Amino acid sequence: MRVVVDPDLCEGNRKCELAAPEVFRVGEDELARVLIERPPEELRAKVEQAARLCPRQAIRLFED
Asked: What is the 8-class DSSP label of residue 34?
């Protein structure tokens, strides 16, 4: 799985960072960053939850 955050949609709500801090970090510019573009399978549930929680649906998950 590959994780992408759309910076045009992200509002920096930090819900992704709270759900999966190993994968997401919100910077000083209030935009989420992906720390691990291809997270290990054991983080899948957290990443999927982060995507569901994003109020702007700025997180995209792609299966390779």
From this structure: E
Per-residue pLDDT of the chain (64 residues; tens, 9 = 90+): 999 999 999 999 999 999 999 999 999 999 999 999 999 999 999 999 999 999 999 999 999 8
Q: What would the two tokens of residue 35 be?
A: 């720390």
> Is the overall model pTM greater than 0.85, yes or no?
yes
Delineate the domains of the chain, giving CATH numbers in brackets: 2-62 (3.30.70.20)
- 50 DSSP β-pair partners: none
CA 63, CA 33: separation in Å to the nearest integer? 19
DSSP-derived 3-state class of residue 27: coil
Residue carrying the six token digits 């700025």? 58
